[in-house]
Fold this protein.
Amino acid sequence: MVTLQDYGEYETAWCPGCGNFSILKALKQSLVDCGLAPHEVILVSGIGQAAKTPHYLNANVFNGLHGRSLPAATGVKLANPELTVIAESGDGCMYGEGGNHFLAAVRRNIDITVIVHDNMVYGLTKGQASPTSPEGFVTKAQPHGAPSGSLNPLAVALAAGASFVARAFAGEQDHLASVLVEAIRHKGLSLVDVLQPCVSFNKINTFSWFKKRCHILGKGYDASNPELAMKTAWEFGEQIPLGVIFRSGRPAFDTHFSVLSRGALWRREVDRIALGGIIERYL
């Protein structure tokens, strides 16, 4: 039986009070609840405070370039479909530097879970406005306020054809863990945008700010309704809904490739005769 201890305990480099601590705990709990052993999981991240999360888990890890976690995660899943692949990073890394990769992964519907620590600021590089920062957000780098409008990642994902879209809050750890379980079990790309207060560089969107506004979607909510999902995705202000906003049975990307129906690529023996024939063509 898998336990929390299997995923280890490590000293972190995060600020005291950071929302990343709750996300890490919820992630470990979700992996245990899914019955996944560390060797069955790989976490792929980019660069940033959020991207350090895999360093604090006893599991397979690929730490890549800034904004480039999704291409690597896609490659891992196609090479070894047996692995549970989780791509996780911050809002700047995933939606900013990695924005085009984000769109491509959503369109493909690759069977991975994408966890975004969304604190609406660049935490590692000391507080610049990120893609999800509200317009007018004042920082040391934008003393007159961020001039760009705020990106709505949930609406973008829905418009691009995402098959699973959810929002959670680091201050609701048990609920976050339950959402992650659903995301991991979903066949296709699962986006979980996690509202993660940055106690050092975002003094507006604090834990108390979110606590007053966040509410968990009721049991009567219909997550299969795309129009309702889009309307819900745009609710962000005095009311912020949490939970699975949309889910569909759209086929995952790997189902389009018959070669993957025979199992993981790494298990295959090399056909040396066929390989020799290919090499001969270039001699």
Observations:
- DSSP finds nine helices and eight strands in the chain.
- The chain has a mean pLDDT of 94.
- The longest helix spans residues 20-33.
- The beta strands are 41-45, 60-63, 84-90, 113-118, 164-169, 190-195, 214-216, 240-247.
